[in-house]
Amino acid sequence: MMQNPALLTDKRLREIYPKLCLATKWWLMHRDYDGDGLPEYHHGNDSGWDNNTAFDVGRPEAGAALAAYLVSQMDTLALLAQKLGKKTDAKKWQQKADAMFSLMLEKLAEALKPDGRFITACGPATENSQSPLYLENSYWPDPSGG
Q1: pTM of the model as a whole
Q2: Same domain, 27 and 60
Q3: CA dist 119 → 77, 79, 89, 111, 139 (Å)
Q4: pLDDT for 6-65, tens place per residue?
């Protein structure tokens, strides 16, 4: 929509922006129970990944996928706010996006350290190597990314 001016008229932008703000605020306010700045999925259905093994070993799940989605959404909100002349909102959304991006990278870097949960002799694993679902010599979920 952003690249097609016929779809994103000023009127449409004024309709979309507050709704996208509310949807984003919902994740930030109601899905960060541990208060670490990274909202969590509380069920596989929240993500569309209802069969993902991450949900077999516990919830809530504060993974990089949700953080990346929200960072992208907040970046978009910053851009939309700028287009609407809401400079304070644009700055606020960009700061929130940047802060969440930094937190996400810290968690990813920790998991990918040489002694991290996802590093194996074969390289990065698709399943946490400390998970009971991790199968060392298996096709899935395995250390080779199968």
Answers
A1: 0.76
A2: yes
A3: 35, 37, 40, 8, 16
A4: 888 889 999 999 999 999 999 999 999 889 999 988 766 776 766 666 666 666 667 788
Residue numbers of the domain that contains 54: 10-111
- The stretch 62-84 carries a mean pLDDT of 92
Domain annotation covers residue 5: no
Residues 102 and 125 in one domain: no
Are residues 145 and 123 in contact, defined by beta-carbon separation less than 8 angstroms?
A: yes
53 and 38 within one domain: yes
122 plus 105 within the same structural domain? no
> How many helices and strands (H and E) does the chain possess?
4, 2
Q: Taken in order 58, 71, 31, 20, is the CA torsion positive or negative? A: negative
Amino acid at position 85, single letter: G
